[in-house]
Amino acid sequence: MKAIGMDDSEREALLQCVAAILHLGNVVFESTGDKQCQVSNPQSLEWAASLFGVDFERLTFVLTKRTLKIRGQGDTCVSLGEDQAFDARDALSKFIYAAMFDWIVSRVNQSMSVGPGEASKVTRSIGILDIFGFEVFEVNSFEQLCINFTNERLQQFFNANTFKLEEELYAAEGIAFEHVSFVDNQPMVDLLTQKPLGIMNLLDEEVVIPQGSDTKFLHKIVENHSSNVNFKTGPKSQADSFVIVHYAGPVVYDVTGFLEKNRDTLTPDALQLLNTSGLPFIAQMFSNSDNMTAKDRKQTLGKQ
Q1: Is the dihedral of CA 35, 58, 71, 213 positive or negative?
Q2: Which CATH number is 142-256 given?
Q3: pLDDT the model gives residue 1
Q4: Which portions of the chain are predicted below pLDDT 50?
């Protein structure tokens, strides 16, 4: 951080923000009945609130309740269940961490920038490729589907540029060549993304349906893709699962929690709270959050 010119106050604020995220991740919720919950270890939340520079009571509200804007009826406050509160905690942590990453990239660009008169003389750049590898665990959920889908797209890009485009170029220029056989994963990508019945599209659709559920989502994808060679029903011992045959091999996915994980659970209340932080570093990062409308933000993580 010193190497890119960060001063002491910037480094301290960045590390303070990291510490706050770690404390936030330690917060645990317990059910109080009737789809409501409370924080069972308030000390961790107090530390997080202090480090974030926000009010403890407001942070508690953001994690355990949600304000709904109902046309013609004003604002309505609804309580979150235990599982929903954990999702809200994780969504807030991820959002802040992502904003920190963007800030660091911007700060690196600022440090490497040159004056207008020097632009034609000096060019400085840095490229970072940070991707997940293919994942197969004992239990695979929505996170693994997103990661493996990203790897499918990377494999598709590699195939297109290494094989397809090169062969088209050779053919256009009349150059004799020997065809190189490769596994084309385009059908796999179509299974996930082709509208309107791709698996990710059906998941987004199920999220917005009032009575949508993980089980109904599973029934829909089985109904629409049971004949697809890249799709299989889950083993009998895992009733709430399905199998996708990726280019790297088959993966069994458990649909439990798919809908909730796919929702963008970061609420306007959370954005507003971060905007009012007493820590200038955080307040600056989220200074435009009040102007971020539902239209600006993708409604599901799958779309993002």
Answers
A1: negative
A2: 1.20.58.530
A3: 84
A4: 290-291, 293-295
Cα dihedral 39, 85, 251, 129 in deg (nearest 10)? -90
Q: What is this structure's pTM? A: 0.68
Cα dihedral sign for 194, 199, 203, 209?
Answer: positive
- CA–CA distance from 119 to each of 36, 108, 116, 127 (Å)? 58, 17, 5, 19
Q: Give the per-residue SS3 of the chain.
A: CCCCCCCHHHHHHHHHHHHHHHHHHCCCEEEEECCEEEECCHHHHHHHHHHHCCCHHHHHHHHHEEEEEECCCEEEEEECCHHHHHHHHHHHHHHHHHHHHHHHHHHHHHHHCCCHHHCCCCCCCCCCCCCCCCCCCCCECHHHHHHHHHHHHHHHHHHHHHHHHHHHHHHHCCCCCCCCCCCCCHHHHHHHHCCCCCHHHHHHHHHHCCCCCHHHHHHHHHHHHCCCCCEEECCCCCCCEEEEEECCEEEEEECCCHHHHHECCCCHHHHHHHHCCCCHHHHHHCCCHHHCCCCCCCCECCCC
List the chain domain ranges: 8-127+265-291, 142-256
Q: Give 133's Cβ-side CA count (13 Å radius).
A: 2
User: Could you tell me the CATH superfamily of domain 8-127+265-291?
Assistant: Myosin VI head, motor domain, U50 subdomain (1.20.120.720)
Instruction: Determine the pLDDT at residue 290.
Output: 47
Cβ proximity of 271 and 292 under 8 Å: yes
Residue carrying the six token digits 């409501």: 36
Question: Would you call the peptide bond into 196 cis, given omega within 30 degrees of 0 as the criterion?
Answer: yes
Hey, what are 203's tokens?
């998941």
The candidate with the shortest Cα–Cα distance to 213, out of 223, 224, 202, 198, is 202
